[in-house]
């Protein structure tokens, strides 16, 4: 079966104070369908930069990124937007939920943007939120929820469109240890249940060990730990 993600020779550098800083140096990475891969490394190691590249969120990268069989470098802006919308889901450390929308509306919106009808989008949102223990919070806004509940809402939103690949950047980094364990367990359960693959950036070796495979970012290259 073809890989959901195949990255080859990915490089990224910045110029700062007249000095060139190489953040990614020829990164090679594959993620198989349904596989959950931990991207391990300390803060500042380039994990977020790699996820931004794979998420097609910014330019300036050299190398190949193939998502669900499509080469991102061959796509124009509209094509990258389509691929990001149809094949990817995102979970961030700081939620980025819409504060004026309740839990159901936050999960409905990406589905409607993709073209789903309102009834099916609401049913899907309620199913995902209920499966994450938020069935009693469907009408609550993010400010009315705890940090762990907000992150579970973000997980539901990321999976709303049944993405082939979920990208998670320190998804439990803003939570206490007990809540982080609960949220990660729910995240892994739901991603596996949906049949999605995931690439999860973390600096926490204990949490990384709960995933299917661990790769580590060292001096701009990925290696097995």
UniProtKB/TrEMBL annotation:
**Domain ABC transporter: where?**
5-225
The reply to whether Coiled coil figures as a keyword in the UniProt entry is: no
One GO term under biological process is: lipoprotein localization to outer membrane
Keyword list (alphabetical) reads:
ATP-binding, Cell inner membrane, Cell membrane, Hydrolase, Lipoprotein, Membrane, Nucleotide-binding, Transport
Q: Which InterPro entries match?
A: AAA+_ATPase, ABC_transporter-like_ATP-bd, ABC_transporter-like_CS, ABC_transpr_LolD-like, MacB-like_ATP-bd, P-loop_NTPase
* GO MF annotations, alphabetized: ATP binding; ATP hydrolysis activity; transmembrane transporter activity
Gene Ontology cellular-component terms listed: membrane protein complex; plasma membrane
Sequence intervals crossing the membrane: none
Q: Which Pfam families match?
A: ABC_tran
- Top EC category: hydrolase
Its Enzyme Commission number(s) read: 3.6.3.-
Assigned protein family: Belongs to the ABC transporter superfamily. Macrolide exporter (TC 3.A.1.122) family.
Kindly provide the name given to this protein in its UniProt entry: Lipoprotein-releasing system ATP-binding protein
Give the species. Sphingobium fontiphilum
